[in-house]
Every structure is written in structure tokens, then in C-alpha cells.
Specification:
With 316 residues, the chain is α/β, with parallel strands linked by helices. It is built from ten helices and 13 strands. The longest helix has 22 residues. The structure holds guanosine-5'-diphosphate.
């Protein structure tokens, strides 16, 4: 178990994942959780990151920062996704190594796997084939991040581990209709359609693509679990092991937010990877499973969204 009294740095604490990790650490009784906003520290700047680590001297690091977005943002801004993430992963891993951080958890993404990987996707599928073009920049940066952790472990003996989550959702998500991921975008689109009394709601793609969704509070729990119980080179998939079609997801959001309205599929929008569901046997073998069902998680996320809309804190 990692020491609850030691300083812990959560890189990326304002994001969907980082805010969930901070909540989880607070519940767990960590007494010294360190965070810093991007206006105070540009994580792409090695000398600034080094200076910050020298001053703060964290013992543990959750590296969950990055430039993130949905299929549209990824495919139209590939250079930013590649550059920002490569730099952020490199600077933080190097600074953590330099000051002798005891343990670091790096968060990747299931888009690291080949576009046509066998399903469910095992950890061994990495680098077994070409990537999905709509998020290639992001995926390459994430693969480099995994390899950084592996090589720093191999060359220097650093205890740096990697977790690969499936598609995430939950409170604090980005509800921007163009830049965000499918689940928050659908929540917002159905919500606005109900308010406007529209008779149909747009869903991108054919609806046949399959995705797996994990509540971000479950991911935060898994991250802490791995920090406490896992110290090996291999990355670990984090998911539910259950997927559904985008049509089924849209129907579930419709039933929750605006029952009875028609779905209109916009096939000019890309489907992306045809199917993405993780093999989670490595993680379940270690003793961890997700606890939030999708319907329950959708309902609590919708509740969070309407409250955040009312108090003006939602990212749209
Ligand atoms: P991906 O898993 O990297 O492809 O990330 P996304 O969450 O952006 O997209 C997942 C799937 O949902 C893709 O097949 C999209 O075409 C589909 N989708 C349907 N409606 C939407 C939407 O409003 N926004 C986004 N981002 N995706 C949508």
C-alpha cells in the first residue's frame, strides 16, 4: 500500500480523470494531495516541470494529464494531440525519475490498440497492427508514454506502472458537442432537444460501432488499487468487459433524458474503430472489478450535468 501521509501529485486534476482521482484520494484519507493549474505550470515545459518537482518533492505521481477529446477533435487536431501528450508524458516521467519518485501511475487509453485487434482486446495486442486513423496522433503519444514507463523501469529500476482505461464518462466530463466524447455529447443533445421540443436527435455515424464505457469513479478506484497492489512492467487494461452499440447507448440516453424521440443517424460522421472492448482478466485476476452499471452511471451523470448547467460549472 502506498503511504497515505506522503505527498502525492495528481497531474491533470481539473480533467475528468484527475478530478475523480483527487476525490478518491480525499475519501481514502490522503493528507497531502498536490495539484497545479495549467496557468501556473505548463506540463510541456521540462525546465518548469523540473522546478516544480524540485519544490514540491512528491513521493507518488498520478500522471493523468493530457490533451483529450472525442473523435472529431482527435481527427481535426492530430498535431496538438500528438505534440502536447508526447511532451507532457516525457516531462513528468523524467522529472519523477530525476527526483526519485517512489511510484508513478501513467494513464493511457484503449485507443493504443490496433484498429482491427481481436476482441476483447488483451494487453498483448499492443503494436500488433495499424492504428485507427481518427485518433492516431493521440494513440502514438499514449504508446510512447507506456514505453517511457517500461524503459525507465528497465534502465533505472523506477516503479512506474501503466493503466489503459476504456472509454470513460462521469461528472466533470467535457459536454462540448464537437470536441467531447459520445456519451456526454448525447446527454447534452437529448437534453437540449427536449427543451426545444425537437422531434429527432442527431447521432453521429451508423450507430453500429461498439464501445465499452467505464464510470470515471471506478477508474479512479482502479488507479489507487494498482498503486497499492501492482508493480510490474506490463500495462493493465481497465474496463467493465461489456460493450454495446452506439445505437443502444443512444437509446439508453433517450430513455433517460427524452423518452420517445426519434434518432437520426448522420452517416457523414465517422464511426471510428468498429469495436473496442477490453479483456480485463489481468485486472480481475489481481482482484479488482468495476461496480457502477451503465444505466446507474448514466443517471447520476445526467443529474450532475443538470446541476452543473444550473450553477454554470459545466464545460460546454
Ligand atoms: P472514440 O471511441 O475514440 O471513437 O470516441 P467518441 O466517444 O468520440 O466516439 C465513439 C463513437 O460514438 C463513434 O462511433 C462516434 O461516431 C459515435 N458518436 C455518435 N454520436 C456522437 C457524438 O455526438 N459525439 C461523438 N464524439 N461521437 C458520437
Amino acid at each position: 500500500m502506498i503511504d497515505r501521509q506522503a505527498p502525492v501529485f495528481v497531474a491533470g486534476h481539473r480533467g475528468l480523470v484527475g478530478s475523480a482521482v483527487v476525490r478518491r484520494l480525499q475519501v481514502e484519507g490522503f493528507t497531502d494531495v498536490q495539484t497545479v493549474g495549467r496557468e501556473a505550470l505548463d506540463l510541456r515545459d521540462q525546465s518548469a516541470v523540473d522546478a516544480w518537482f524540485d519544490a514540491q518533492r512528491p513521493h507518488y505521481v498520478f500522471l493523468v494529464a493530457g490533451t483529450v477529446g472525442g473523435i472529431h477533435a482527435n481527427s481535426t487536431r492530430p498535431a496538438e494531440f500528438l505534440y502536447d501528450n508526447l511532451m507532457i508524458h516525457g516531462t513528468v516521467v523524467q522529472a519523477a525519475h530525476r527526483i526519485g519518485v517512489e511510484k508513478l501511475l501513467y494513464l493511457g487509453s484503449s485507443c493504443i490498440y490496433p484498429r482491427l485487434a481481436d476482441q476483447p482486446i488483451t494487453e498483448e495486442a499492443l503494436l500488433g497492427g495499424p492504428l485507427e486513423p481518427t485518433n492516431e496522433g493521440y494513440a502514438l503519444a499514449k504508446i510512447a508514454g507506456i514505453k517511457l514507463c517500461e524503459t525507465y523501469r528497465r534502465q533505472y529500476g523506477d516503479d512506474f506502472i501503466s493503466a489503459m482505461p476504456t472509454n470513460l464518462y462521469g461528472p466533470g466530463d467535457n459536454f462540448d458537442l464537437e470536441g467531447g466524447h459520445v456519451l456526454p455529447a448525447l446527454i447534452r443533445r437529448f437534453h437540449e432537444a427536449r427543451k426545444a421540443g425537437l422531434t429527432e436527435v442527431e447521432v453521429w455515424g451508423t450507430g453500429e460501432a461498439r464501445r465499452e464505457f467505464l464510470h470515471v469513479d471506478d477508474l479512479a478506484d482502479a488507479c489507487l488499487f494498482l498503486m497499492d497492489h501492482y508493480s510490474e512492467a506490463g500495462h493493465v487494461n481497465v474496463g467493465t468487459g461489456v460493450d454495446l452499440t452506439i445505437r443502444e447507448l443512444a437509446e439508453a440516453v433517450r430513455d433517460l433524458v427524452y423518452p420517445g424521440v426519434d434518432l437520426a443517424f448522420d452517416i457523414s460522421r465517422p464511426d471510428g474503430v468498429p469495436r473496442k472492448v477490453l479483456d480485463i482478466s489481468r485486472l480481475t485476476g489481481l482482484g479488482w472489478t468495476a461496480s457502477t452499471g451503465l444505466i446507474e452511471g448514466l443517471a447520476s451523470t445526467y443529474e450532475w450535468f443538470t446541476a452543473a448547467l444550473a450553477d454554470g460549472t459545466v464545460r460546454t
